[in-house]
Every structure is written in structure tokens, then in C-alpha cells.
Amino acid sequence: MRAHVRLERLCYHAAMRDEAGLERETAKPQGKKRVLLLLSAHTYRGGAFLEAAESLGLEVVRGVDVPEELAEQWRVPLGLEFDDLERSTEKVVEYARQRPLDAIISVDDSASLLAARASAALGLPHNSPQAALAARDKYEMRKLLAAGSVPVPQFMRYSLLQDPKVLASRVSYPCVVKPLRLSGSRGVIRADGPEEFATAFERLKRLLLSEGNVPDTTNVLVEEFIPGVEVALEGLLTNGDLQVLALFDKPDPLDGPYFEETLYVTPSRLPDVARAAIAACTSQAAEALGLCEGPVHAELRLNSKGPWIVEIAGRSIGGLCSTVLRFGAGVRLEELILRHAVDLEIEGLDRERKAAGVMMIPIPKAGLLTGVEGVEEAKAVPGIEGVEITARLRQPLVPLPEGASYLGFIFARADDPASAEKALRQAHSRLRFKIQAQIPILHTSRVEVSPVKQ
Ligand code: ADP
Ligand code: CA
What is the pLDDT of residues 304-324, one digit of tens each? Predict the structure, then answer.
């Protein structure tokens, strides 16, 4: 299925591009198109974008989130501090004056605001800056979605200063307690009654304080638990039109109390009518946030009342999950995004006919990772295309809800989604992780494991 939804919305596209684009073309020497890739220092996603850019013959400028002093030392071509928006925007504009840019791409959420601001300053098509703000604050996102009449659960924001025992009587159950600004399901906890709520609230509070937040200025979100199955939608927006690139089922139930993501399998096995409703809901959500250009990644839950948005952001899928996606004549997702960004021809947006799947390998227990066995056996399972262990040996492993990483990824390709899922499960069962138990200490969540990279 391919949903193609035309929407009337205010997009920051044609007018700006025509006016400023003309100027740009005359200033820029003919030849290679130039793209600024905004990368956080630890992103998983950089390699795939850099490779795709190279294969397209694009000139890539790497704008990396590092302090100014370090940028020179590390020989980063364009050192930017993503949180210092004003200064970073100025730096990008200054850079583009000397060497005009055809597109600015934020590889993950961390630079989406900078990408929007700098694109606006240079007259490049871009999403609304409020979409980038919403991607960083779950409460802002809920407010914008609700204002756009997008199906979202009931939600309330509470301060860490409030007494959870008092709040517990105001909440309806089951509910989900979550932080506003973390990712990878960190700190997201389901509670089925007042006691569980108070425990979850306190646990989230400890996590947030251990991350350096102060109670006076820190809030948490409490929302209705949405029952149902969960999917992830990967799409591409062109002047407000949503093209669904891939819809992933998440076949392992995500019912809590913690929400560890494991399996992603595409194409979805949901009926056509459900998939169409998911696409329409995503499109409506994109509109509500002011997302209109470039990649979009949405997570939804589906039940008898239809689809509900869990989250939506103007970026592509996180981690190494895009590895299994191929479009048209074998084009990768990152190439598609780059082609779209610099206006190169795209032959086909249809995903290949084969099914594909990824497993984000969950952390079975806390401890020190001392060894991994069975990787070759896992790779030998029919349908398995790769096994990447990303956790480092002798590093502490912290499971959810405090932890922030996976052990790695397994990739599969098969004739149908059920076979891809089976291959992933089989490969996973062949992996043996040696984890040395550690005496639990309160500050384990502060221990640096490789951070979740969205
Ligand atoms: P993060 O940004 O950390 O990924 P999310 O808001 O996406 O946080 O929540 C992580 C997961 O928790 C979701 O993928 C979903 O499985 C579950 N979840 C979050 N909110 C709800 C909810 N209101 N109802 C049911 N499940 C939820
Ligand atoms: Ca999420």
C-alpha cells in the first residue's frame, strides 16, 4: 500500500525557494550540489548519510555539535553548538555566504531546530520551527496535536515538586508516566493504580534528578494508557504531501510497565483499511505540527477506536534500523532523503517487494557485559543479513526504564513478514550474552553506556 495524501497547509516551500534560490544559484559555482549534514557527536546515523552522499556525488559539509574550541582541535569542518541557536544559525549563514548550500539536513532530532532556522534564513524549504520544538518536548507535542484534533490520549503535565500521592487520586488508570525530554523509552512507565503511580513517579523523578534536572523547573507528563498494537511509519513529506515509505509492525506486545522496543517488521500485516487510517492520522499529525518537508518518523498505536499518535518527528528512523530498507532499484533511505533534499530525480518510492525486519537486541539484565557468543550462528540463520553488536565489552549495561542503549541490532530480509520475524527470533535465540552481575547502586543510570541514538 502506498498512501498519498494531499494536504492544504502553510508550507515554507515554493515562494521562499524561488526568490532566494535564484540568488543562490548565481552565487554558487556550477557542479556538485552541497549539503550541510548536522550531526551530533555520537549519532549512529552519520555513516549511512555520508555514504549515500558520496554515492550521489554530493559535496557534504559536516556540521558537528562540538564546543568551538574543540572543533579546531578535532578538525571538524563546521563546529556548531546546536543549543546555541542564534550563534549557530549565524555561523551556518556565514558559511553559506562563502560556499552556498543546497540543503541542510538534521540527521537526528538534536539539530532539527537549527536546521529549520538556518534553512529559513537561507531560503531553503523547511519545516516549521515549532515542529522541532515539539520533537523535544512531549508536552508541547501533545498540545499541538490536540489543537489539530489529532487522536491523542488525555494528558496532564505535573511538576516534580508535586506530591505523587496527592496526584494519584486525580489520575485515571491505567496511565503512563513519562519524561518530557528523554528518548528511547527511558523513564516511560505504566501504572495501573495509585500505588503504582506513586512508585513510577518517584522512580522517574530519581532518573531525572540523576540527569542533572532540578525539581523546580522539571515537569513530567502523565497520559492515558492507549491499549492496542503499535506501528512505526517512515514517510517523506513534499510540500505537505505525505508519501508512506514503510510501515513497520512491532510484533512484540508493548504493554508495559516498561516499553522496550525490540522487533520492527515491514510490510505491516495489518489490513489495508487500518494502514490507510494510520497514514491519514500521520498526515494530520504532521500538519498539526507544521512538518511539511523531508523525512517523517511516526509511532502510533491502533485499537478499536482507530489510530492514535504516540510520537511524530521530522527525521528518519533511529538507530541502525534503516539498514534493511531498500526502495525502487535498491536505493537506501538516506539516499532517498538526500535526493529529495537537493531536488535530484527519485525513480521510485516503493519499497522492494521483500519483507524486512530489525531486532533491537534488548538488555536482559543489569551488569557488566563480559562476552558475546553465537554471533556467527545467528548470522547463519536463513534470512539474516547482519548482526551488529553495538554495546561495548566491560561496559555496564542498564536496562529500562533507566538505561539508554541496546545490545545491538539484527537485520533480516525474507519473502514475507512472518518469515522475517521468525528469522530474527531464531537469530536472537542463538546469541548468548555474558553479563556479570553488579551490586546495584543508586546512580547506575548515570553510568555512561553508549547513549541511545535516535
Ligand atoms: P520516547 O521518546 O522515549 O520513545 P514515547 O512517548 O515514544 O517516548 O514512549 C515510548 C513507548 O512507550 C512507546 O513506543 C509506547 O510503546 C509506550 N507508550 C508511550 N505512551 C503511551 C501511552 N499513552 N499509551 C500506551 N503506550 C505508551
Ligand atoms: Ca518513541
Answer: 999 999 999 999 998 888 999
Q: Which residues pair with 384 in a beta bridge?
A: 412
- Distances, alpha carbon 33 to alpha carbons 26, 40, 335, 341, 417, in Å: 13, 23, 14, 10, 38
Which segments in the chain show pLDDT lower than 50? 1-29, 444-454
CA–centroid distance, residue 423 to ligand 1 (Å): 26
Report whether residue 226 contacts ligand 1, using a CB cutoff of 6 Å: yes
145 pocket-lining for ligand 1 (C-beta < 6 Å): no
**What is the number of the ligand closest to the CA of 228?**
1
Pocket test for ligand 1, best of 108, 142, 176, 190 (most atoms within 8 A of CB): 176
The Cβ of residue 22 has, within 10 Å, a number of other Cβ atoms equal to 11
Q: Closest ligand to 184 CA?
A: 1
DSSP 199-264: HHHHHHHHHHHHTT--GGG-EEEEEE---SEEEEEEEEEETTEEEEEEEEE--S---SSS----EE
What Å distances lie between residue 434 and 115, 206, 215, 445, CA to CA?
Answer: 42, 28, 38, 20
Task: Please give the grid coordinates belonging to residue 44.
Answer: 549512529
DSSP code for 110: G
In this structure, are residues 193 and 139 in contact, taking their beta carbons and an 8 Å threshold?
Answer: no
- Please give the distance, rounded to the nearest whole angstrom, from the Cα atom of residue 233 to the centre of ligand 1: 15
Q: Which of 110, 137, 185 to mutate to test the pocket of ligand 1 (most atoms within 8 A of CB)?
A: 185
- Ligand 1 neighbour 451 (Cβ under 6 A): no
- How high is the pLDDT of residue 10? 38
The grid coordinates of residue 190 equal 505504566
Judge if pTM exceeds 0.85: yes
Work out the end-to-end distance of the chain between its first and last CA atoms, rounded to an integer number of angstroms: 26
